[in-house]
Amino acid sequence: MGSIDGRRWGISPRMSRALRRGVLLLVPLLALAGVSPSAQPDEGPGGGLRVLLVGDSLTHGSSGDWTWRYRLWQHLQRTSVEEIDLVGTRDDLWDSAGHVPGSQDYADPHFDRDHAAAWGQQLKDYPIGPVVAETRPDVVVVVLGTNDLTWGRITPAQLWEEWTELLADARAAAPGVDVVVSTVPLETIPGATDWNAMLRRDADGLTAGDERVALADAAGFVAADHTWDGVHLNAGGELHLAAAVADALHALGVGGPALRPLPEVPLGPAPPVLSVEVEPTDPTEALLEWEAAPGATSHTVWVRPSGEPWTEVGTTSDTRWTFTGLRIGRSYVFRVQSAKGTALSPKFSVPLRLVPRPPPPGTVDDVRADPAGNAITVTWSAVPTATAYVVEARAPGVRHDPGARRVVRVGEPEEAAPAQARRTTELAGLAAGRDYDVTVQAVATGVGGPASEPLSVTAPGERPGPAVARLRVRRDGTWVARWQGVAGASAYDVRLGLRGGAAREVRDLHGRRWVSTRALRPHERLRVRVRARNGDLAGAWGPVMRGRRPPLAGPVAP
């Protein structure tokens, strides 16, 4: 039987090793038992195929990141026929605000977060033996070398020696383990080009029997497109590196290849949550504050005054921005856009609208309400900051009556504060004889102050004269009452009654006639009187008008 090549047949490393090691022994045993030979992968302590992700800050990630581990996990969940278990000694991010490990502020924490990467880690001192012995992986993915070439200042040849030693220690801790090694993504680092060339040329030669090495080639990585600070991965860089690792794992029989072209994903952190308030002592000044999203390093502030487009006003690393020179009464909308380094989020905060208002004016003093003619003349002292006044007359306890309330606005919101010592206006259209509570309220650019104490005043007017009605009863028993209009009358009342019965009144008739709604019976007598009213002032009842329905005609002789 020839050797079984997992890379050729797309078989996972665990299954490939099981076949290579045990198929010659299993075939005769299974044949004796009458069972067809089939290899089942060892589920291991955690279940599923165990993948250990080893690396530095590129793998560790910092607060607010999705991480390339997240992108790889999503890919394997879609394409792997086996259950995948990411293993490691930690599950955190680097806290970019506190500059310590331990953050759990993932952009999306719902994935297998186990890993064995550390911010600032170098390949030369990575404890691969103890980590592999503790996690018992089937595949080790190594993304190291960036810090060795920069901080460690070692040559590519020295780094190769460190890499082969790390590989040997991993195999000693877990014989048969497969390894994926990644190129250094950022080839602008001194020595990275030569190091990557060595990996591309010699990585396949590190395969030893059933212990395979696959290369994750991150070629095409561009700092301007794939990092937020020239080194660390933005969302696009996460996809780029995850795709390179996915292709290498596919070469080992784990999952499918990365789909290309890679999708476009939004960069930058989540949008912040805003609040805005006006400076109490200066309404033309507003303070915008927000709660920064994890990982955000700066924020761009935008404003849109009413009738104008959005304008970018500045960028800050703080979580507040002060606006000055706002116009009283004008509408402004604010929003903030977060960034992590150069990774500017395309999403904005929920916009907040603000209309700057001045402090409310004081109470109006010296209010007078004098009945005169058919109106009430109201006067009051000016309030220094007021730009308008609202004068109101309200009839207490009266509802659903147009004459129960009158409101007059004096001045306009945008006018300058009045200079005269006293203001005046006239309240007309009130119901004559009705009691009203009159108040005055000062307004400063749309902000009303407290209303003055109400003044009780009776609306002026004269009682109208009597109304004389005419009554006509038709032969069919229907009837109609008519009367002439009375000078100064705003409505009429009709009192009607049948002989021997109680009288009934109908109020607020604005026409000059009343038509029956029920026909009189034969011989039934009706009494009708009318009076005019001016608001609540009623005139005298007019004379009583009487009518009777005639008897029905007798039968016609043949």
UniProtKB/TrEMBL annotation:
PROSITE patterns: FN3 (PS50853). The keyword Phosphoprotein does not apply. SUPFAM superfamilies: Fibronectin type III, SGNH hydrolase. Residues 1-33 form the signal peptide. SMART domains: FN3 (SM00060). CDD domains: FN3. Keywords: Carbohydrate metabolism, Glycosidase, Hydrolase, Polysaccharide degradation, Signal. Residues 272-358, 360-462 form the Fibronectin type-III domain. InterPro entries: Ester_Hydrolysis_Enzymes, FN3_dom, FN3_sf, Ig-like_fold, SGNH_hydro, SGNH_hydro_sf. It comes from the Bacteria. It holds the Pfam family Lipase_GDSL_2. The keyword Zinc does not apply. This is Lysophospholipase L1-like esterase. It comes from Nocardioides massiliensis. The lineage of its organism: Bacteria, Bacillati, Actinomycetota, Actinomycetes, Propionibacteriales.
